[in-house]
Structures are given as structure tokens and as C-alpha cells.
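Quick review question:
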């Protein structure tokens, strides 16, 4: 009976200190129902926090064991013995990487999917990106990828702008020369020849434009592939 009273007291403390941000008024939810929902929401929130802390402790403990047993060559034998698979161990160790990179955000990190963790711990994933993702509290993989794409695009734009002086410009002086010749000539045969050459030039320029488009599309696809 005493134990039950203690549990009820703890439950009451959790509920009384919890404030739901859900807009019950907009849905015209009765006060009696609201009270029940808030109570259960408080319990769930507290449980999630406990789960987050437990997950962090598991990841940390596994990492510390790995430091001791990897050198001995017995780490795999140990984690197999306690029922863990290679994939599960990899997942937990990667999650711990994110935990230590985002201190104070244990609850957020614990809610990330395994796919999101894999993305955030890629070797080519910059630490600055990870910190920004943590600050933004991005959870969905597609949102994280969209964020990275926006960063890459922005950085490429800055790089392009800083190297404008290196961009090759076409020399239009020759075009101006032909323009002047066409204006002054009265020889129709000569004009027809110019027209033929211009048609060939247009076709060649279109080929070059298409080549540029292919290169740009290839670059975009390569960036997208890096995120998978």
C-alpha cells in the first residue's frame, strides 16, 4: 500500500509540473477529457526522456567497452555473446557519435531514425552541417537531405562568384567584324555564304549549350548520390 502511494505521488508530481502545448480549445475538448489526455501526455513525455537517457547510457557503455576490447580482439565475441548483432552495434556506436557531437540534445538524438543517424555520421558529412541540423532539430531524412543540398548549392554559388575572373568569355569581336561586312556588302552570294556559316555556328553553339546542360545535370546527380 505504501509503495502504491509513493507511485501515485510521483505520478501526481509529474503531471502537475507538466504543461501541454496542444490547442485543446480549438477542438472543443471537454475539460474532463483534457485532464486525462494531459495526464497521459505527461507520462509519455517523462517516459520518452527516460528512454532517451537509457539509450544514451547504452551507447556510451558500448563505446567504452569497445575501447577496451577492440584492442584485445574480443569485442565481436563479447557483443555477440550478449545478443547484439554487428549492424546493431554499428548503429549504437554511430548514434553515440551524434550524442557526443550534440551535447545537451540527447532527447533529439534519441528520436532520430537509423537512416538519419547513418546520414549524419557519413565521413564526408561536415561537422558544421551536423551542428546546424541539431540546432534546427531536423528529424526527417528528406529534410536533412534538403538542408544539405541547400548548403551545397549556396557554397557552390559563393565559389562561382569568387571565381568570376576565371570564367572564359567568348570573344565577340569576330562577330562584330562579320556584322559590319554583312552591312556593307552588296554581293548577295557573299551574304548567302555568311548565312550558311551562321547556321553552322548556331548548330555548334547549340551543341555546346547541350554539353553544358549535361555537365550541370551530372554535377547535381553526383551531389544527390552522395547523400544516399
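Suggested answer, residue by residue:
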Amino acid at each position: 500500500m505504501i509503495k502504491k502511494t509513493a507511485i501515485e505521488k510521483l505520478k501526481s508530481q509529474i503531471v502537475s509540473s507538466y504543461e501541454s502545448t496542444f490547442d485543446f480549445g480549438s477542438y472543443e475538448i471537454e475539460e474532463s477529457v483534457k485532464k486525462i489526455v494531459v495526464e497521459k501526455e505527461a507520462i509519455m513525455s517523462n517516459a520518452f526522456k527516460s528512454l532517451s537517457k537509457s539509450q544514451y547510457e547504452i551507447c556510451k557503455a558500448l563505446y567504452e567497452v569497445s575501447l577496451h576490447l577492440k584492442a584485445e580482439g574480443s569485442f565481436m565475441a563479447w557483443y555477440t555473446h550478449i545478443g547484439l548483432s554487428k549492424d546493431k552495434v554499428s548503429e549504437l556506436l554511430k548514434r553515440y557519435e551524434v550524442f557526443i557531437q550534440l551535447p545537451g540534445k540527447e532527447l533529439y538524438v534519441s528520436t532520430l531514425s537509423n537512416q538519419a543517424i547513418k546520414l549524419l555520421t557519413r565521413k564526408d558529412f561536415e561537422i558544421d552541417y551536423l551542428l546546424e541540423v541539431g540546432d534546427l532539430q531536423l528529424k526527417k531524412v528528406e529534410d536533412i537531405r534538403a538542408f544539405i543540398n541547400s548548403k551545397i548549392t549556396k557554397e557552390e554559388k559563393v565559389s562561382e562568384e569568387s571565381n568570376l575572373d576565371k570564367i572564359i568569355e567568348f570573344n565577340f569581336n569576330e562577330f562584330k567584324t562579320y556584322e559590319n561586312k554583312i552591312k556593307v556588302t552588296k554581293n548577295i552570294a557573299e551574304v548567302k555564304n555568311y548565312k550558311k556559316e551562321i547556321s553552322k555556328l548556331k548548330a555548334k553553339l547549340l551543341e555546346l549549350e547541350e554539353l553544358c546542360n549535361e555537365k550541370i545535370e551530372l554535377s547535381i546527380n553526383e551531389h544527390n548520390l552522395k547523400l544516399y
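Why it works: The radius of gyration is 32 Å. The CA atoms of residues 6 and 12 lie 10 Å apart.
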